[in-house]
Structures are given as C-alpha cells and as structure tokens.
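Handout, section B. The chain below has 304 residues.
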Amino acid sequence: MSTILIGGGSGLIGTRLSQMLSKKGHKVILLSRKKNLQAKYPKYAWDLKKGTIDMEAVKQADYIINLAGAGIADKRWSDARKKEIIDSRLKSNSLIKQAVENLEQVPKAIIAASAIGFYGDRADQLMNEDTQAGDTGFLAESTKAWEAAISDFSSLPTRLVKIRVGIVLSTQGGALKPFILQDKFRMGTYFGDGKQFYSWIHIDDICRIFIYAIENEQMNGTYNGVSPNPIRLYDFVKSLAKAQDKSVIMIPAPAFAIKLGMGEMAEIVLSSTKVSAQKIEKQGFKFEYPELIPALQHLLKENV
C-alpha cells in the first residue's frame, strides 16, 4: 500500500480518483483549504495565496498527484479570472516543488495534470505529445505557462509524469451534463458547424491513467489523457442520443451567438482539438472505454 497525496482532490477527477485508489488499497490524503484529519480522505491545509503547505502531508507521500487549478469554464474570462486560472496552476505546482525540495527523501513520482488545451484550435490535425503548442487563444497560452511550471519538477531526483487531460465525460459534472437529453426536450444542441473534434475520455479511464502512472515505473514525460477515438461534436451529440435510446432533433447554436454570449470563453466549445492516444497505448495502457457509445451507456447506467 502506498500513500498518495492529491492536490485538487475535491474536483471531478480527484473525487473519482480517490475512490479508485482507495479501492486498490492505497491510502489517499488530500491538500485542501482547511485541515480535517477525520475526513474520509484526511485533508491537510495549503494556501496558494500565502504560499503555505502542511509538510506533514508531503512527508507522508509516496506519490504526489497535482490536479489543482481554478475551473476553466466556471466563470467568464475577465482579465482577473484569467490571471486566477493561470496563477492557481503555477502556484500549486511551485508550492509542491518547494515542499519536496525540503524533504530528506523525495516521493517516488510526481504526476501532474495538464490539458489538451495546450494544442489550441488545430482543425483536423491529429496531434501527439511532440506537437508544438498552439500559438493563439487563452487555452494554449495558459496551458503553456502551466506546463512550464510542471517542468520545474524535472530538477528533482524523482520520476515526473505529465498528463494532458482531454474532455472528461462524467454524469457528475464537466462537459457531458449539459448535453444529456431530458425527457421533455429531445433537442440536441451543437456549437458552430459541429465539425470541431472533441478528444474525450471516460472519467474512469482518465483516473486509470493516473493510477497507471503511479504503478508503471517506465512512465516518464508527457502523455495525452484521451480516448483513442476523438469525435466531431455533431456526431458526439448524435451518439449521446443513441446511448440514451432517444430520437433527437439536431439544433445548431451559431458560432456568432456563442461568441456573443460567452465572449472569449467560446473558445472552449468552438475549438477543434484532435489528439492521439497512441503513446499511452504503446506504454501498455488498455482503455476500458475506447468507443464513445459504450462509454456513454456505462456512464448513464451507473451514474458515474
């Protein structure tokens, strides 16, 4: 049994990951705003603004996973919000690095989340881990800064794995919930022309990739956390209707209307990011849900 310290453990991925790690027999502890050692997963305090972290948590950790960061889609992108999004990612990684530098024995590995926003809007281009970062848009800008902070871990004498997380599908939050068809209104809305690629992944598969990064000592460097089968948005919405066994009337939301309503944040839903999972598969990882419709059916049936 290993002790796994997670930053950002209360989010969508962190919540499910904690459950799955615990089920495998690992001890899970979390970094949180408030200390609560009686919680199901004991919480130790850290404060990004003050630059403080409970060293007792860091000393216990055999492995550290950092998922922390302000939600990209939680609030409109004002200048202040964009700064918060970037700072939360930079400061969390910097704080963990400073803490680990003060240890006599470093963790066996640090696994840090990044995002496929790194690639930016690239139309139909299939991108792998060696593809250069996008040169336009806030998603690429913020993720490049995020990855620069992650790269600072490379100075530590420990294994470093970076996971570029795709569009995570779960009924508990994230990208899927707004698309789920309700009984009364069987209208499937897609954004723009619907031709943009969404590089999706089942919540359990992205958690299994993080667990695989812990258990597989051969994993080093950067990996895309996406399914092997990215899909165009229009087909994604049609597939969801099929998974729900419902007929659907497809209704477009024009790009100009999305941009008017969301401002710069429209980039989130209008960008096309077609990302390869070949590297993680070559590493030996086996997806449980490589195909979209079975993945959706499982999520909806199990309410995962």
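Note. DSSP finds ten helices and 16 strands in the chain. Compare this with the example in section A.
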